[in-house]
Design goal:
alpha+beta; 4-stranded antiparallel beta sheet; 8 strands; 4 helices; Jelly Rolls; disordered N terminus; single chain
């Protein structure tokens, strides 16, 4: 009888230990989501979002790393993921022409959240880089549950498009 009781007690401790471990893992995930939310808040297209929206968005991000010179995606690849540079630098290019070199806090691939077109340029790690990746398939349900976020993001993207158009017009005026 004592042996049976000891085995039951041992089993209960193992289960309780698993519960404690599970609770600890959930606490770690919450802390990681809070830290990712802080980094997302520093990104221009997400800066206007309330804290609870940032935390919810952070919960659907994945941290990914690439080594110096490693290809993140190539022109013509299917889209589907937005990337926020957490650390390091990324070169955006087409052919041998560098279009931009982006650093921490900058975003690329943002149009893939709103459509499923192919990539319009190459993205290559210009150093060891850590990215926060937000997949279209995770972002869509997030937006469906928080429609005001979509409006805020569209406002920000529209502002970026206006600035790009103004820059392009200025470049063309300089060529004339």
């Amino acid at each position: 009888m004592r042996r049976a009781l000891a085995l039951v007690l041992l089993a209960a401790l193992v289960v309780a230990g698993g519960i404690v471990t599970g609770v600890a893992l959930l606490a770690e995930e919450d802390t990681a989501a809070e830290a990712r939310a802080d980094r997302l808040a520093a990104v221009s297209i997400f800066a206007s979002l309330p804290r609870d929206d940032l935390v919810a968005l952070a919960e659907v991000t994945d941290a990914v790393t690439f080594g110096d010179g490693e290809v993140i995606f190539r022109e013509g690849d299917p889209g589907g993921t937005l990337y926020v540079i957490d650390a390091g630098a990324v070169r955006i290019s087409t052919g041998s022409t560098t279009l931009a070199t982006l650093g921490a806090g900058e975003v690329f691939g943002e149009l893939s959240l709103f459509g499923s077109d192919t990539r319009s340029a190459d993205a290559t790690a210009d150093s060891a880089v850590t990215l926060l990746a937000i997949a279209h398939d995770d972002f869509t349900p997030f937006l469906e549950s928080r429609p005001t976020v979509g409006i805020a993001l569209l406002d920000t993207l529209a502002d970026r498009l206006r600035r790009t158009n103004a820059d392009l017009a200025a470049c063309q005026a300089g060529d004339a």
